[in-house]
Amino acid sequence: MATQRTSFTKLQRDRAKKAKAAAKREKRLERAAEAREGSSGDDDVETTNGEGPISAAELLREIEVTHQRFEAKLMSYEEFEEKKAELLGRLPID
Known about the structure:
single chain; mainly alpha; 66% helix; 0% strand
């Protein structure tokens, strides 16, 4: 029969998982910020006020940023659901 792991080992694993998840989250947020800066030069694509044409890829990026903001506790659940519904409603279906 195998021996049980000590609680200290489990604690170390959990801390390592949380640290790795935090690093991945930060990296995603940085990439999203860079993408927003890179796409801000487009005059024909409107992304912030919910009006005008927008590509499906840009909508998906906006949905990802919304999820990241919610996970980072920067918006409430109600705001998150409202923004997500708005963005999903704007996705073009072919």
